[in-house]
Amino acid sequence: MLRRADDLYASLRTNEALTELFKVLKRDPQNPEGLSKIARVYIDLGDTVAESETNWQEKRLKQYAVAEDYARKAVQADPNLTWGHFYVAASLGKIAMLSSTSKQIDLAREIRSEVEKAIALDPRNGYAYHVYGVWHRKMAEISQMKRVLANVIMWRSIPKGSLDSSVEYLTRAISLNPKVIAHYLELGRTYIAMGQMQLARGALKYAQELPVEFSDDPLNKKEAQELLREIRDR
Using CA atoms, how far apart are residues 39 and 69, in angstroms rounded to an integer? Predict the structure, then answer.
């Protein structure tokens, strides 16, 4: 059933894949691979909620919260499985992007901790490097003023990230999974943040040329196209 679910997922038949994965859990409720792959599906379901939909942010957050729940169950079932930790980090990262600054600060350290565990368990987990690359950019983009306010008002420090580290980890992700559109999209965003427009254009153009492999790839291609248009004269 897991293989059947993988085949359906690869064919972009996400809901059918989810049905197969629930069959796995019916036989074995603590199956860590099944639990982590259900988390993956719910992240995809959240990603594909269109911004044109009413209450789209709430709808996405609902799917990401379900993903987080299954990812944590996967970690409990097998703490040595890289994918459980990865999907905890990935789901929390998705939640953070739609949350307040205070919530983002609360989640930042756990996201880093979980993605580092995923990498330690499998240094060839390219998707974990992707999350870490995005994490570094998000942390690097937080202004010094916000960091001071967080210390003074909320009595919390914000973890530091760097754009150079973002490039390093996203490049590593690409070396491990060279056909993943999202890697190039996020690398392009990091280059834009660095003011490296020529490199950004190269990454974003490559993202547009790659074939669709995941359910959110059409959206990723659209975002790459929009970014290229935004930086056309820069």
Answer: 8
